[in-house]
Structure formats: C-alpha cells, structure tokens
Known about the structure:
Blueprint: H1 12-36, H2 42-70, H3 83-113, E1 118-119, E2 124-125, H4 131-164, H5 170-174
Antiparallel strand pairs: 1-2
Amino acid sequence: MNLLNTVKDYGLISKIFHWITAAALFIQIPLGFYLVDLDFGEKRITIESIHVVLGLAIFYVVLGRLIFKLFNSTPKLGNSIFPGQRLIAKLNHIFLYLAVFAITISGAFKKLFNGERLDLFFFELEIKDNFDLAEIFYEIHILSNYTLIALISLHIVAVIIHKLLFKENLLKRIL
Length: 175
C-alpha cells in the first residue's frame, strides 16, 4: 500500500486522516446532542470537556488533512461520472471542511463569550464575556452541526448510489 495517493486510490496517510475524522465525528455528533439535554452539574462538565477536547482534535486533524491535501493529489473519479457529479463531489468535500471549521470556531467562541477559558492544546484563551454573542455563536454551532450531518449523509448516499447504480466501488478506494 502506498503512503501517498495514486491516480486511482487513496494512500495510507489519506485513509488514516479520513477514518480518524469519520470515527471522531461518529462519537462527537451524538455526544453533542446528548450534552444539550444534560442539566448543569459534574456530569455535564465532564461530558462538555470531552466534547471540547474531541472537537479541537477533529479541528486539528482536518487542518492537517487539508495541509496534506495541498501537497498530494486526489485520485481521479472514473470516466462514467458526468461533470455534474464531479462538481457535486467537490462542493460536498469543500462544504464538509467548512462545516467542521464553522462548528469548531463557533463552539470555541460560544465558550469564550460565556466567560469560560479555552485550552487550545498549544495555548489558553480567555476573553471578556458577552452572553449575546455567546448565544449567536451557539446558534451558528447548532446550524453548522445540522449542515454537517446533511453533508455526511449526502457523502454516504453518494457512495451507495455509485455502488448500486454505477457499479463503482468508491468505498474500496478509501478502505
């Protein structure tokens, strides 16, 4: 197996980035929904801490993935794919990245404007509280999460459609 991508397949590094991100999001999204309904207390503080650390880890992994992508080509889609599908796939990937960044940044600002300290692994931030801004960033956080869920769903449905209708096993390239 190649470390780097080839014209037809993803390399080991891309696969690791993809599946770490997918696994972390598979944990993070339900954890966020669970967190919303928790009453304030020790359990909520613990779950929220896990949610924040995992969210920042996802942010850094995706950032690393994008940097890696700049220096490594993306495998080409098959010839049976029409240009509209290429555009949809490209846009879906771009919006997936943007949604992850919007979620992380809005979550961080929500926390900071609530008067909380945020440990970004490399440094700590604390700013003056502003509960009105905290509420705006919370709404952006929620909207971005639903957008991410829709984009992930589209991503998965596209792989299934390619397998069933076009007889192309796109999943095999990233496994």
